[in-house]
Design a protein that fits this description.
This protein has a domain of about 120 residues. The chain is mostly helical. The protein contains 6 helices and no strands.
Amino acid sequence: MAFSAEELRVLRRALALALHPSPVSDEDVQDCLRLAESVDEAVREGARLRAFLVADLARYRTALPGTASGYLALLDDALGAGYQPGADDLAALRALRGNTTAAALLDRCRILAEEAVRARLAGRAVPVHGRAQVPASRTRLLALPGGLDAAGDPAEPEPAAPPERPAAPEQPRPVPTPAEVFPPKRRPETPADPPHQLVAG
């Protein structure tokens, strides 16, 4: 990856600020953000190219031995782009051992495989076979004092939302009793006995 003279100036300024934090102007922050976006885009484009290269390499390897010259050239390019050879590549190169280019690439791939094994034993990360690692895109440059977000506003942590209070459980409606739904019938009142009249006689 090559930087222009202006990008190198911005990079030096960013490194100086990282080593010796100090107030920066909005222009410096915006320059650093643009440089970070350019680097991210270049990395993504490189990952896309490596993915195409690895896919072509697999097609040529499947069609061996008729595609030996194309496969060896692609493998050489892939190794230069950081490709980690796998067991299929080593087997293909052993089958082509009579070719001087294949023999040289086999020695190179064996060295890379041994280095990968030592790295795993030491607990270091090893690139996944045939997979391009792409860093996450940076939307904010918080390493700089007074860094701005993409909208140009100071990058401040967003306030945490207050925790929601659980809703009070709804009180169940009282169930009417049968006596309330079907009130008892009122019994008719019995008339009182009429007063007895005494008849003379």
